[in-house]
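Query structure, 72 tokens:
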């Protein structure tokens, strides 16, 4: 048995997808932590939310590439 040493394109996308999901979760937790403080920094929260939205767009794009279209 000789396993290939390189990952396929789909495997790389899946790894990237997991990394992006983890970053998205981390940003969500950071935003929540800032919001529950007594005096949250709204500018920082706004920036983190923009980053989170950009990650969500990347996640959706990768998911669309990995999931084939179903023609009804």
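Result returned for the query:
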């Amino acid at each position: 048995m000789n396993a290939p040493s390189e990952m396929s394109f789909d495997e790389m996308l899946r790894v990237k997808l997991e990394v992006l999901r983890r970053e998205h979760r981390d940003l969500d937790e950071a935003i929540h932590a800032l919001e529950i403080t007594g005096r949250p920094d709204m500018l920082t929260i706004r920036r983190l939310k923009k980053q989170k939205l950009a990650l969500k767009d990347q996640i959706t794009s990768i998911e669309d590439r990995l999931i084939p279209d179903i023609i009804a």
